[in-house]
Amino acid sequence: MISRARPILGTFVSIRAEADERAVAAAFSAIEQVHHLMNVHSSEGDLARINRSAHRRAVRVHPWTRRVLAIARRVSEASAGAFDVTLGRHRASYSDIELLDGNRVRLRRAARLDLGGIAKGFAVDQAVEALHRHKARSGSVNAGGDLRVFGRNLQDLRVRVPRAPQLTIPLPPAREGAFATSSGYFGSTLADPVSGREAGIEESITIGAPSCAVADALTKAVAAAGPKPELLRQFDAVAFLVDTNGTLYAARA
Amino acid sequence: MRGIDSHLWVPVALACVPAPVQATQYLTVEQAQHALFPQADSFAAAPVRLTPELKGKLLADTGVPTRGDQQRAWSAMRNGALQGHVLVDEVIGKQELITYAVGIGSDGVVRGVEILDYRETHGGEIRDPRWLAQFAGKRGDAPLRLEQDIQNISGATLSCRHVTDGVRRLVALHGLALKGK
Fold this sequence. Notes:
By secondary structure, chain A is α+β, with helices and mostly antiparallel strands. Chain A contains six helices and 13 strands. Chain B is elongated and about 70 Å long.
């Protein structure tokens, strides 16, 4: 079992795997590549290029960027815009993003996209794929609290308690699956893109789903619009809520 | 927020023992040396004395203060030729205690950063019985203990800004005191 942690994505990414060193190195490079493609601050990344010019002409992007945008659109449509990667103040919405052939992206109007609510989860998925490609038998990838586990054995999972993030409580253990949590602690805030208001949550929302990109995106949709059963069903997801007393609630499809 | 007001949320009866997070050791210094310079065949201690002049220059160049009077560093060698340096440093913040290593090539380019030890420190409230009382009935008699080695914790973790600031400072230090040596 190899266990490594590095500072990436503005947080700490840790990878544990029953695999060789090359597998773990490949997993970290996948995360670094997603970071490069999809963070607003890398000026040559896909996201910066889309924000700069996709409203004037179609921009060719990496297949991963297109996949993230496709997943984002599915979650936006299923949640009636409760999750949306376009920033509200430009009056644009997810429906202004056109995904064209040849991994090209066009914006119907000037808009700024922020993939902060999904890219970290997608990076976890790519790291897990890299571990699978290198024949890892089991493992887990945790990018600042967005995580995914795989393998034959049940793995223990825990979630932080809102307002007391030094404490954790257990979630049901899992063999395969991704878990992402949205909450207001450690200074992060959630905004409801429909109302533009801060969701200002006292509770934290955790989503369990087959992929971490979906789990990551759904946390925002459920925090904003509640754990709608048809939404959870569509993505084969389960929602958890932890209140400030450390009590765990669940909502299923 | 529509949180627990919603009838869709159902309480889950798990044995909810809240446990303080989280301490993990990832690598020893020696393992980190080999991870950062796998081709090196030996590592020679090359500590840097942190004089007030050097500290002042580092602060001016990077805006990051330097503590202590010595910086742990090693020269990575292969067949007697210098490949670069490994510097090991700590972040001791309000919420974190993190040891990390930076590998810097002879050209001054960062080869990699590895976390050696990661530990989120407790706020004082963890030891305050009044604060703990809110978890009464969930804890049973289990003492709150530091959970070693929990990998799978969901929920936002600490920012790595202090570590990336530290890396910047160590790159500057390398340029001033180690490059070519």
